[in-house]
Amino acid sequence: DVKVTQSSRYLVKRTGEKVFLECVQDMDHENMFWYRQDPGLGLRLIYFSYDVKMKEKGDIPEGYSVSREKKERFSLILESASTNQTSMYLCASRTGTGYTFGSGTRLTVV
Amino acid sequence: QQQVKQSPQSLIVQKGGIPIINCAYENTAFDYFPWYQQFPGKGPALLIAIRPDVSEKKEGRFTISFNKSAKQFSLHIMDSQPGDSATYFCAAKKPLSTLTFGKGTMLLVSP
Fold first, then answer.
1. What pLDDT is attached to residue B59?
2. Is A97's CB within 8 Å of B104's CB?
3. Is the pLDDT score of B38 beyond 70?
4. Which residues from B are below 8 Å from A44, CB to CB?
5. What is the pLDDT of residues A59-71, one digit of tens each?
6. A74, A99, A100, A105, best to mutate vs chain B, most B CBs in 10 Å
7. Is pLDDT of A97 > 80?
């Protein structure tokens, strides 16, 4: 089975901090995604990547950036964390049409 | 603009009941319609998916019904069990694009 691992289950950061969320997949998938999940808003796409060093903006990229230096690793960066970025962050990878999600990182910005 | 509208937001059924979750879409370019199931503390997992060339697909107790002319699709869970309690997301995808998700339905199956 494909495994998508997110490095942190819970994170608490202060406003203004630079935050890194890490995601690793073990099946050599080219496509990787970052979503945030909020109650009543569902899953919203932040950024995605089709290949190493390539990135595309999703629906809500403001305040975020990403890095993909290796195929298996896709990092989400909050340049200056704000309280409205408190959320559940989900990483996914894809082959064909099937998406595999990690278990998520619950980020609280105080 | 919400491309995939999902309802209801939450649903409570008794064990053995048949919960139905509905989704509607506007973009006729969508050609793949999956449903994801998410348990607390876990990421969503693919449950079942359908393409618009069929009107129904069954996998175990889960059935997708698809109405191309109405641009609607729904998930039915037969003989629902407390272990089916989860959040369900419908989604849609067009070629060479990413998945667009509905807002989710929290299902509670009472014993």
1. 95
2. no
3. yes
4. 101
5. 999 999 999 999 9
6. A99
7. no
| d(CA A103, nearest CA chain B) in Å | 4
Name the helix (H) or strand (E) containing B90: strand B86-92
CA angle A103/A42/B52 to nearest 5° reads: 100
Q: What pLDDT does A2 receive?
A: 65
Chain A, chain B: beta-carbon pairs less than 8 Å apart: 42
Give the Å distances, CA to CA, from B72 to A12, A108, B33, B45, B105. 40, 36, 10, 22, 16
SS in 3 state form for chain A?
CCCEEECCCEEEECCCCCEEEEEEECCCCCEEEEEEEECCCEEEEEEEECCCCCCEECCCCCCEEEEEEECCEEEEEECCCCHHHCEEEEEEEEECCEEEECCCEEEEEC
CA distance A85 to A88: 9
- A3, A5, A43, best to mutate vs chain B, most B CBs in 10 Å: A43
What is the average pLDDT across A8-32? 94
pLDDT for the residue numbered B22: 98
Query: With an 8 Å Cβ cutoff, are A104 and B42 in contact?
Result: yes
Which of residues A96 and A1 earns the better pLDDT score?
A96
Residues of B in contact with A104 (CB under 8 A): 41-43
